[in-house]
């Protein structure tokens, strides 16, 4: 039986959106299990993760900018000497119908969720291909597969992430690089804080509609992300792993 507490010893991981619910739990989980972590977010509060573990370094920046992705990979190489795992987790949502949505709204969601993920995948692949190893986990959503009114830009970005990941898995296989999506259902986080009052209550309530009957805690999603990223998932690539309490099974 492998020792989970040391599972990621010697590995170097980039986690985006690490000031948030799932990203924070994921960065802490990797550090707890021995990894060195570059934790990135547009929010300056991400720096607090450095107090949690001396294996975490932080980077503040807008991940939709090309330079943020290059800085993240450079930081991993400069501080830790390698890059093994990329977790593209940052995202934003704007709740408007397609008819109401401005071009600025559309671009702001697609730029973070899709462009940011693409840029980080591209910069990571440049390092992982010559190293002939790597694991990429892109965080999707049950909105990779199902639709709700008012999430047009978000759902489009998450569907595109699933396809981007399938392509990456084909391009990476010959180099020993795996790429997968973890697609959560409702998680009690602050992701809706900018778009409605009591966003956490809304997510907790909405999660009751899943067969499991509740929303997830961020730590439950971090566990699935860690598994998909780990060598325990060595035969898994190009897939979308639903972690949605059974929502899409109905
Ligand atoms: N919470 C849910 O119900 C739910 C459901 C399905 C999927 N997800 C997915 O889970 C992932 C994590 O979301 P969460 O629920 O932890 O949300 P969260 O809002 O707590 O965390 C997202 C983080 O991304 C960061 N971010 C946003 N724009 C950025 C930018 N331009 N540059 C850098 N960082 C930026 C935010 O500052 C935030 O810290 C996302 O991919 C989200 O789509 C969440």
Walk me through what this model shows.
This protein has 250 residues and is of the alpha/beta class. The chain has a single domain, classed as Rossmann fold (3-Layer(aba) Sandwich), CATH 3.40.50.720. Helices cover 41% and strands 15% of the residues. It has seven helices and seven strands. It has a seven-stranded parallel sheet with strand order 3-2-1-4-5-6-7, with helices on both faces. Helix 1 crosses helix 7 and helix 4 packs parallel to helix 5. The longest helix is centred in the middle third of the chain and has 29 residues. Nicotinamide-adenine-dinucleotide (NAD) binds next to helix 1.
User: Approximately what portion of the residues adopt beta-strand conformation?
Assistant: 15-25%
What is the straight-line distance between the termini? 35 Å
CATH class: Alpha Beta
What's the domain count? Answer: 1
Q: Biggest sheet, in brief?
A: 7 strands, parallel
What are the secondary-structure elements, in order, as H or E? EHEHEHEHEHEHHE
Looking at CATH, the homologous superfamily is NAD(P)-binding Rossmann-like Domain
Number of separate strands:
7
**Runs with pLDDT <50, length 5+?**
none
| Backbone shape | globular
């Amino acid at each position: 039986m492998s020792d989970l507490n040391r599972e990621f010893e010697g590995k170097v991981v980039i986690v985006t959106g690490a000031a948030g619910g799932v990203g924070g739990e994921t960065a802490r989980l990797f550090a707890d299990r021995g990894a060195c972590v570059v934790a990135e977010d547009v929010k300056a509060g991400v720096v607090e993760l450095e107090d949690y573990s001396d294996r975490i370094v932080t980077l503040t920046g807008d991940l939709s900018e090309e330079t943020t992705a290059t800085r993240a990979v450079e930081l991993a190489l400069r501080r830790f000497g390698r890059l093994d795992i990329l977790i593209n987790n940052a995202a934003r949502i704007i709740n408007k119908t397609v008819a109401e949505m401005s071009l600025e709204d559309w671009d702001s969601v697609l730029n973070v969720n899709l462009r940011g993920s693409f840029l980080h995948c591209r910069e990571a692949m440049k390092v992982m291909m010559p190293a002939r190893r790597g694991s990429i986990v892109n965080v999707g959503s049950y909105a990779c597969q199902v639709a709700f009114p008012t999430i047009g830009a978000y759902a489009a970005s998450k569907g595109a992430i699933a396809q981007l990941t399938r392509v990456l898995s084909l391009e990476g296989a010959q180099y020993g690089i795996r790429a997968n999506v973890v697609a959560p259902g409702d998680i009690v986080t602050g992701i809706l804080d900018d778009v409605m009052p009591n966003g956490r209550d809304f997510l907790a309530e909405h999660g009751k509609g899943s067969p499991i009957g509740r929303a997830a805690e961020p730590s439950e999603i971090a566990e699935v992300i860690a598994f998909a990223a780990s060598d325990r998932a060595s035969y898994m690539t190009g897939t979308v792993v639903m972690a949605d309490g059974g929502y899409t099974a109905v």
